[in-house]
Amino acid sequence: MSGPNLRVALAQINTTVGGIPGNEAKILDYMDRARSQGADVVVFPELAVTGYPPEDLLLKQDFLRVASAAQERIARQSQGIITAMGWLHSEPAEGSATQQPSRDHQSGVVKDDSGHSPLLANCAALLQSGRVAATYSKQLLPNYGVFDEARYFTRGTDNLVLSLGEHGLGLTVCEDIWSEDGPHQAQAQAGARLLLNVSASPFYRGKGEVRQDMLADRAKTTGAAVVYCNLVGGQDELVFDGQSLVLGPDGQVLARGAQFEEELIVVDIPAAMTAKAPASAFNGSMRHVELSPVESREKPSVLPALAQPLEPVAEAYAALVLGTRDYAHKNGFREAVIGLSGGIDSALTATLATDALGPDNVHGVAMPSRYSSDHSLSDAEALARNLGIDYLTIPIEPVFSSYLDTLAPFFAGRDQDVTEENLQPRIRGALLMALSNKFHWLVLATGNKSETGVGYSTLYGDTAGGFAVIKDVVKTLVYELCRYKNHVSGREVIPENVLSKPPSAELKPDQQDTDTLPSYDILDPILTGYIEEDLDWRAISARGYDPELVKQVIAMVDRNEYKRRQCPPGVRITTRAFGKDWRVPITNRYRGE
């Protein structure tokens, strides 16, 4: 090992699930970059070759073969640098003749064709000198929230400590280090003083601070330095924020990666922090592997990477931009279309899309009806002009009138009600989808979490689209994000009139949201308590909210599950979004006590 320090590079990369050739090329590129920076060790995120989470792709035999072949090629390129990376490991269970899994359709359990189960392991591999020097199988498989790892993987049981000259290393995968008594403790007791963790930790607001506090505690309780390499990028509704970390044994941050950006973070860790300690405990499940020291070579000087975490509103904005960009690009869309109503939700959605895809790739469409106010049209046009995006106007009055005339004989004798209101957003949704089909534009739905939560939306209308950018953003945060955008831009991107006028669906004369809903500064905390914190009406009411109002809001949430199930996916930025981590039955008579 050259010099007194161990130079470690953290490859904070943006992978694509199933994009194995592209992931492989990116991994090899970052390995080369790490070598050129004189790194002794380079660390990649969890399941770097397959992307995370691969979900039921793991049941496809050809997927496993392609992933395995790519991993073998990467291993052969590990000359001159030690590589720790997320790895998909497949091997036959005892008594099995095959490595290929499938799902038993009666039990739902993954088995091989001999009936043995399970077969796959979520691993970290240690590559050196063109081969796999060691693998470690993840022991703690998360099976909550957005995670379903017990569906696919077998739990590891063996611990691993690696000797690299005078350095003692431990190796774990994501969830393993979140538990206070996780495998890192045994590795530290066996002499490891540098704990490497390969991770794919999804973002929610405030997650970075929680994660850093947790890692600082792990460093201090083990007396070991911690290297934590996290994934970055959008994958369906999930966003991974990067913000990889290196901490000293005292819990102090030595290096921090940027949020929501790919980056190679290179840091010199003093040898005094990583020198092997005398083993204080051994057990039969601990494996020790000796690694060959990296050949001495001249190392270029590096500056410590210490990106500052974003402020709460800024990080939410950045997550929404990245999630939108990756969803569009990874699914083959370059352009997007948005219905511009002149309201704040469509304004924020269009602004986020512009930052994600560029103004030349965003199309705003105003679709006025007889109830659209003059200021709504002028506000929509001003927004499009401020953003520099394409602006189209397609009046829906002729179509709306035709619908009313067609239905008139069947609705005779009945007063107009929500039926006629809902025709308008459904016409708009159909027009946007027609533009999408003709020009291959991704339709971005504009509904926020407050509206989605209580069902204040029209099925097949404003819920229509391919992606719902602000689906996990409550209305009060919508306002904060808009004001944040104007502030950082140093100009009025989103017109002040959009921010100041009362929100309205404009589906009937003089309509306002408060005709149906409580004010959003009251509604949003109730929704947060019920959806994200799992509180009942008593606990929410104890925070100062009217009990009857709380019950009404909860009832609205409960009876609108059928709508949410048919909504497009959207970026997850809270601890519980309407998606992977919200699994409520539609047919459900339980209404609490």
Description:
The structure is a single chain. With 593 residues, the chain is of the alpha/beta class. It has three domains: 5-92 and 110-295, Carbon-nitrogen hydrolase (Nitrilase/N-carbamoyl-D-aminoacid amidohydrolase); 313-513 and 561-565, 3-Layer(aba) Sandwich (Rossmann fold), CATH 3.40.50; 518-559. It has 17 helices and 22 strands.
Quick rundown:
The protein has 593 residues and is α/β, with parallel strands linked by helices. Helix content is 35%, strand content 20%. It has three domains: 5-92 and 110-295, Nitrilase/N-carbamoyl-D-aminoacid amidohydrolase (4-Layer Sandwich); 313-513 and 561-565, HUPs (Rossmann fold, 3-Layer(aba) Sandwich); 518-559.
Task: Return the CATH architecture of the largest domain.
Answer: 4-Layer Sandwich
User: How many structural domains does the protein architecture include?
Assistant: 3
N→C terminal distance: 66 Å
Which secondary-structure class do the elements indicate? alpha/beta
Relevant terms:
593 residues, alpha/beta, Nitrilase/N-carbamoyl-D-aminoacid amidohydrolase, Rossmann fold, six-stranded mixed β-sheet, 22 strands, 35% helix
Q: How do the helices and strands line up, and which of them pair or pack?
A:
Layout: E1 5-12, H1 20-36, E2 41-43, H2 61-76, E3 82-90, E4 101-103, E5 110-112, E6 120-128, E7 131-137, E8 159-164, E9 167-173, H3 183-189, E10 194-199, H4 207-222, E11 225-230, E12 232-235, E13 238-241, E14 245-247, E15 253-256, E16 263-270, H5 271-274, E17 286-291, H6 312-330, E18 335-339, H7 344-357, E19 362-366, H8 374-387, E20 390-393, H9 397-411, H10 418-439, E21 441-445, H11 449-454, E22 467-468, H12 475-489, H13 496-500, H14 520-532, H15 537-541, H16 547-559, H17 561-565
Parallel strand pairs: 1-2, 2-3, 8-17, 9-10, 10-11, 18-19, 18-21, 19-20, 21-22
Antiparallel strand pairs: 1-16, 3-6, 4-5, 6-7, 8-9, 11-14, 12-13, 14-15
